Sequence to fold (282 residues):
Amino acid sequence: MPGRGTVRPEKVARVDALAQHLLTKPVTAMVGVRGVPAAALQSMRRDLRARGHPIVVAPNSAIRHAIARAAESRPALKPLLDQVDDQTAILAAEGNPFSLSDELSKTRSPTPARGGEIASSDIVVPAGTTSFKPGPIVGELQHAGFPAAIEKGKVVLKKDTTIVAAGGTISREVAGLLTRMDIRPLEVGLALRALVDGDTFYPPDVLSVDLDARRADLARGMRGAIGVAVELGIVAPETIERFLLRAHRAALGVAVVAGVPVPESLGPTFQESMRSAAGKAA
Fold:
């Protein structure tokens, strides 16, 4: 590292430890921790460590030096340098990157705005009756851009309104009113920026997969494939049960028509006899 002789030993040791941390697991991720309260972050770190995914928070300068050092032996880590911004943590893990992304997404939860934050998506306030009582609040809402009015003695919002567009700044006035309306427009939690699995770099948009939906798709496809296999007469472990049920129904039908007295055919045979007798009586 350039100028290493002028750097304090504890900083050198920190960079060495971070670089080693980056190389301990096949999956290395850059995680944003902006806005996560200290107590919540400590709890998340404990949970992740218990699952074998230790997360380390460090100054960005130390993280950059550590990535550069680790990339000397693992070049695939170099793209992570572009993800070191704002408040950053390093996560080392094993396993499926998509499962890890899903795990991190579950740490995020809605939180109120305080004012000054940037809206990551449109903040839409729905039309309808509010909990406010008629009074000066109507003017406050209108001044902040809410379509407020009084109808039948209640304060209502007359239409769905995008009160802050994505990328816009949430004013303190709007933030206060949203909080009073129990609308929490922001999310707090660990934000996966990117990760490297072995030699493969994954940006976060690639990892944002609804695993439950994908499992449902696979199950639906499996059921369809089994149905096709049965129709084509393909014998496989997954189709044997259906073939046996189909053969059982066919054999039972033959036994009923032929009047063969077996336990399975007695009920259907009796019902068929009753229908036949009723038809003749008519």
Observations:
- DSSP finds ten helices and twelve strands in the chain.
- The mean pLDDT is 84.
